[in-house]
Amino acid sequence: SGPGLPYFFEELSMPLRDYLRNMDTLLVLFIGLAGLALASFLETLSYRLSRGLSILWPPSSCPGCGRRLGITELIPVLGFLIYRGKCRICGYKIPVQYLCAEVIVPSLYIGLYLKYGLSIQFFTYIYLVSILVYLAFVDIDAGAVSAGDIAAVYTGGAAVLFFILQKFKIF
N or C of the chain: less Cβ packing under 10 Å? Predict the structure, then answer.
């Protein structure tokens, strides 16, 4: 049985058990896709913020030629593989770190779900993984992590901690 299923899962009727198993598979797929999207967003966020660029405008473009990226180029992992890690127009080489993040982050999210299910620990750890990936990218892109980035991490961490304390009625 999967992590999100109750202990009495094996005692259920076959059609209901199969339905729940399929729902668990769909949840794993959803978590993986969310991890892909968040990895791509974290990459964009670190690239743009470390250069003082807006995260909203302009749309994503090739750093080599400045051309706006097409929809197929924006698909995490597949866009990198289809175009062999290069701009399809100018041949600018996309750093492999982006592909690594787009594989590692969803894998970690799925692994954390399989270990903890939909729990506070799961959401806390995916927050921590996301923050660490963001800070690693900022460090790689800019060569240093700014005080503003650290302040944002502390603020987010405080919010997560407050949520956990509220959930357990400690605070």
Answer: C
